[in-house]
Design a protein that fits this description.
By secondary structure, this protein is mainly alpha-helical. It has a domain of about 70 residues. Helices cover about 55% and strands about 5% of the residues. The chain has six helices and two strands, in the order βαβααααα. A two-stranded parallel sheet has the order 1-2. β1, α1 and β2 form a beta-alpha-beta unit. α5 packs across α6. It is elongated.
Length: about 160
């Protein structure tokens, strides 16, 4: 595969069918068809600096995303989810990889009108479990009491 981004004279200078990549000079000159080695080194350092700036900008943007959530609430949610996985493993008598498809949506439970509705949703989810689930359901309902539903982060308008 041949990629030519330096214009028609750069592609023509390539001659054969080998794999060649041509870079266009940021100032529009040279075309990559044979300029001095100093300009090639300068172009490499400019492109490397631009890549570093892009990575730093991405990291900065990623950092902003987590600030939009309440970290304490996220940590509580993570601990609860780990506990649920552990308990389901005990209820089904298997490892997480072997567990049947069981989905317990905490936000869905929090949307329920009352404790009875939450318990019914959990019982429906765990209908194929052969072990008693009452203690698990009671404990889970006690653990989610007082939790808030996590909403997606709000986008800032510029």
């Amino acid at each position: 595969m041949s990629v030519a981004t330096g214009g028609s004279e750069a592609a023509a200078a390539g001659g054969g069918g080998g794999n060649r990549v041509f870079f266009q000079s940021p100032r529009g000159g040279g075309g990559g068809s044979g300029g001095s080695s100093g300009s090639a080194a300068r172009e490499d350092s400019v492109s490397a600096a631009a890549a570093v700036v892009q990575v730093q900008q991405r990291r900065h943007q990623q950092g902003k995303v987590t600030v939009k959530y309440d970290r304490k609430e996220l940590r509580k949610r993570l601990v609860l989810e780990e506990w649920i996985v552990e308990q389901l493993g005990q209820l089904y008598g298997c490892e997480e990889e072997e567990m049947p498809e069981v989905e317990i949506d905490i936000d869905d439970l929090l949307d329920a009108a009352n404790e009875e509705e939450r318990a019914l949703k959990l019982q429906e989810t765990l209908v194929d479990c052969y072990k008693p689930t009452e203690e698990f359901i009671k404990e889970l309902l006690a653990r989610i009491r007082g939790m808030r539903k996590l909403s997606p982060p709000q986008k800032k308008s510029i």
